[in-house]
Write a structure and sequence with these properties.
Length: 92
């Protein structure tokens, strides 16, 4: 097993926690809720084209993210991060 550096651990934590923090901020700070919702949706835009059942299209907000879409997006981002670290020769 390899050693995971502190910076990579932080990057992994951010990739996983980001959408949950944005969703929490949408509910907590109603005055800036639209900003937090936009940032939340921005996380999912690269994979939202997959469509139902992971992402349900909506004319008002663009799409609604389903739990399976949240999981798939996190897995894809983590896989992309690992592939990037491996291709640059960085050790995990």
């Amino acid at each position: 097993m390899g050693h995971i550096s502190t910076w990579k651990s932080i990057a992994i934590a951010i990739l996983i926690a980001y959408p949950f923090v944005m969703q929490w901020l949408v509910n907590l700070d109603r005055a800036k809720g639209l900003l937090w919702f936009f940032l939340h949706q921005l996380y999912y835009v690269p994979v939202a084209w997959i469509g139902p059942p992971l992402f349900v299209p909506d004319s008002e907000v663009g799409f609604w993210v389903q739990p399976s879409g949240r999981m798939l997006t996190a897995i894809l981002y983590l896989a992309l991060a690992v592939l990037t670290w491996r291709s640059t020769g960085a050790r995990l």
